[in-house]
Amino acid sequence: MTNEYDLVVLGGGTGGYVAAIRASQLGMKVAVVENQKLGGTCLHKGCIPTKALLRSAEVLRQTKQASQFGIETTDITFNYSKAEERKSNIVNQLLTGVQSLMKKGKIDVYEGYGRILGPSIFAPMPGTISIEHQEGENTILIPKNVLIATGSRPRELRGLETDGKYILHSDHILQLEKLPASIVIVGGGVIGIEWASMLADFGVKVTVIEHSEQILFTEDKDIVRNVVKSLTNRDVTIYTNASINFESVKKEAGVEFEIEINDGKQIVSAELALVAVGRAPNSDNIGLQNTSIQVENEFIRTNKYYQTEESHIYAVGDVIGGYQLAHVASHEGIIAVEHMANKNPFPLDQNQVPVCIYAFPEVARIGLTEKEARKQGYQIKVGKFPFVANGKALVYGDAEGFVKIISDQDTEDILGVHMVGPHVTDMISEAGLAKVLDATPWEITQNIYPHPSISEVIGEAALAVDGLQLHG
């Protein structure tokens, strides 16, 4: 059985299905090949399920603090299975939505494992797709263009390989039927810190081990200090500059191993270990050897429009590296499809990508950190304003954190915006729009902010760049 298409997308995750929708809007005949479920890692094993559980953690934390609002509560209990059920319901609802979008766009969805074939009787160039179905049958798709959006998987750590029982990765931990009493998280990046925050709120004893000098090593140091303070105040133990002695790893009714830190050695033990050391691209076993596509450090190499060395084959998302974020994959997919259709899209500007961390407190940023700006030779001005000086934050009961704006002293252009505190993962979009419009801090101050609102902190931080903040 063979079918011809304008575009075949390998992978039905956030990058793949959004690209398919945009291609359909542009009049292309489109097919998506997905080996598991539409929505990919983000919907089923990442963004959505973890944020659903983080919301449960937030409600639990706020309920425990209800007395400050004049609400007396007793015998507060947390039912993890109920939180899991809510998480699953949200995922299933969104999956139904994605399936409906495929039907609306008249996009054919093939369930099976897709591989790229080389030149054959079907086509003179590489790019024909062979789909292996679970039933053992094969389907051949003949596309004019191919988009590789096969995503990524949790990266393993040699010497601390996951077994799904005592040593887990981020897929495993979402399948827990009950919470452990204690956990050690290896890796202090975004995934590790979100789980550390969530599990601490659920009452789990958490230890974080990070090899670098700070957790969240890509974030501004001022932001990290605030996150560390919040986590340690909730009894999370954090070791940085830490190396694991892999020969010491023991798995007997729990996990135990030795780490080396600045001031000596330490034995770390817990009921479970979570390995959160990044994600590896799904670039193997998809037929790249049948093409001229180049791979560097496992990641597929592309140009700024996401074309590979095979000009009719594009690749986006986690499989090409860079920011491994769902919204980036979606944007890359749109650019790739519009380039196929000769729409001359603007290339992605890495400095306009918002990055969010949904721990408590929330963290969001766009653009350069203060350290990066100075390293690149900018003379900078910095404005900073705390949530504790904001009326709405005090009313809301969460006044931890601040907004920090970094601008170029010579041009006044905004170089970076960093936030830590309540609802900052929503507010970062204002900073993103400011970057798109090449705004200055002064231009931000010309916006009229509703009072009281948490968003007023952005305006005050912009004023603070020139020392003109009104309430601080």
CATH C-level class of the largest domain: Alpha Beta
State the helical fraction: 25-40%
Write down how many β-strands occur, each being a DSSP E stretch of 2 or more residues: 24
Q: β content, as a range?
A: 25-35%
Annotation field: number of helices: 13
What CATH calls the topology of the largest domain is: FAD/NAD(P)-binding domain
Task: Estimate the global geometry from the Cα principal axes.
Answer: globular
Mean pLDDT: 96
- CATH level 4 superfamily of the largest domain: FAD/NAD(P)-binding domain
InterPro entries: Class-I_Pyr_Nuc-Dis_Oxidored, FAD/NAD-bd_sf, FAD/NAD-binding_dom, FAD/NAD-linked_Rdtase_dimer_sf, Lipoamide_DH, Pyr_nuc-diS_OxRdtase, Pyr_nucl-diS_OxRdtase_dimer, Pyr_OxRdtase_I_AS
Domain Pyridine nucleotide-disulphide oxidoreductase dimerisation: 353-462
Keywords: Cytoplasm, Disulfide bond, FAD, Flavoprotein, NAD, Nucleotide-binding, Oxidoreductase, Redox-active center
Disulfide bonds: 42-47
